[in-house]
Amino acid sequence: MTTVSTAPEVTPGHRSGEHRPSLVRLTAVELRKLVDTRAGRWLLITIGLVSAVIVALLLVYAEAPEQNFTVFFTTALLPVGVLLPVLGILSITSEWSQRTALTTFALVPRRERVITAKLGAVVLAALGAVLSSLAFAAAGTAIAGATGGAGTWRIEGALVAHSVVFQVASVLMGAGFGLLLLNTPLAIVTYLVLPIIWSIVGELVRPLNRAAEWLDTGRTMEPLFTAEVTAGQWQRLAVSLLVWLVVPLVAGMVRTMRREVA
Amino acid sequence: MIAVHQLTKRYGRHTAVEDVSFHCEPGTVTGFLGPNGAGKSTTMRMICGLTPPTSGASTVDGRPYRQLPNPGRTVGVLLDASAQHAGRTGREALTVAASTMGVDRRRVGEVLDRVGLGTAAARRRVRAYSLGMRQRLGLANALLGDPRVLVLDEPANGLDPEGIFWMRGLLRDFADRGGTVLLSSHLLREVEAVADRLVVIGGGRIVAQGGKDELLAGAGTVVRARDGAALRAALHRAGLTVSEGSEGLLVGADTDAVGEVALTAGVALTELRPAGGGGLEQLFLTLTATASGPVVPATTIAEPTGEVVR
How many angstroms away from the CA of A156 is the closest CA of chain B? Predict the structure, then answer.
């Protein structure tokens, strides 16, 4: 092609921007997208505030010996873990509900790179959530120490590691549901309701009870709130995450890659 | 440049685009013309790698869109002005795109100025934008990467007459500096003023394409006589295609031939002139009315095969 010779001005010979955007850059862009709308910003602030509220409630209502770093930290894990998947879902589905997928995929036609960057961004957000939980727990512990609570600082390193696994798995499960369903309300409702139904059915139907021990993430993730997780518990966790995290993520990836953007 | 080669898109049994081929050269504005639902947007989405074609292929700057390393630096795309996050400000929407492409942030301010979105407007959320402002933002987004190709779907939608005039100037200037522009419209008048070439699509198929002047000139002859019936009969006898135009009979032949026929038949003419844009407009109206296929004056159908598609 001889475009260069025929188009002297709009077509300068060589350009600096010819190489594709790096994954680091794309991840930074996706992080920016998490916070640059009011809805996204408030969701993140809420996730942060949940820890603060929990710590405040514990400071007021918990028994003195219960007012320690570990309790402050672990009590906030679950509520944060409910909100993070919503962040994961929104980061994916808002592209479709707001129709920005048209712009996003026009700029980065290799969609798997966009998806990878999004997953990277929400994982970073989950790590940030753990950090903010730790910070609020620390603040709570300091206050408790001054106001007559136990105020003990001891926390098992393993517990922190487990909480990271829990939050990262939660946010990725949300992202997986978002990728698979590509629709905000559908993905949120499905994500929140399916495990509940599963828990109820698993309890009621005896033959399913054993399966639920392996597949109900509500149960398999419970050990992550403690410092000790046995090999058997890790196995059950792995199986349940395969079903609820890996499968939706892979199937959703395939669907998003093929979907027509209009 | 843009090269489209036998693009076809089927949705189940419905064929949205069938065997569409054309190409757009640097330094030209190509008007992609057709009634609503003719397949313009589908074709453009296929060019931009957003819709996988059933068959056929297209390239931008010699490469399939999906293989462009950093497409925003090569081709500016505006497919739907409403496809912006309602909760972002105009400036933020552009900043996100600039970061993706690795374009200097200062460029955001430049393109905002260029499309006439002031500081106050750029700071507002897209939710509060009128359609015209969204079009300007979309155009700014397309220009952001300093591309050499523009693909714009109905960019004049929602612009006021002054805005349309401004946009024409911008696109003309872009092409005159060696850029390639493909813009679609469902209004002939809108693209007539700026396009060098026209590609007319109806019912998913290309029904006419070629240089604008050539298409407009080859659009036949408008002829009128007091005795319209006699004239029509004579033209039919001469084997010419005749259709009822808004300002007289529209004949698929040049003025010489029509004059000869009238003289031989002894019919006194009250008007005889080249159809000009009227012929294309007639073709266009026919398309809009039926939207089913090439029911057109024969002369306006330029041979799509006459051009080598690269």
Answer: 41
Q: Which of B96, B107, B150 is the best substitution to test chain A (most A C-beta atoms within 10 A)?
A: B96
Whether the predicted pLDDT of B255 surpasses 70: yes
Could you say which DSSP state residue B165 is in? H
Q: Say if CB A243 and CB A236 are below 8 A apart.
A: no
- pLDDT at B3 exceeding the cut of 90: yes
Q: Any chain B CB within 8 A of the CB of A226?
A: no
DSSP B105-144: THHHHHHHHHTT--HHHHHSBGGG--HHHHHHHHHHHHHT
Residue B305: pLDDT band (50, 70, 90) is very low
Model pLDDT for residues B277-304, shown as the tens digit of each residue: 556 777 777 666 654 444 444 334 443 3
Question: Are the C-beta atoms of residues B144 and B98 closer than 8 Å to each other?
Answer: yes
Amino acid at A82: V
| Closest chain B C-alpha to A109 CA, distance in angstroms | 5
A9: DSSP letter: T
CB pairs under 8 A between A and B: 131
On average, the pLDDT of chain B sits at 87
Backbone torsions φ then ψ of B200, nearest 5 degrees: -105, 130
Q: Which residue has the tokens 């031989």?
A: B264
Element spanning B243, H or E: strand B242-245
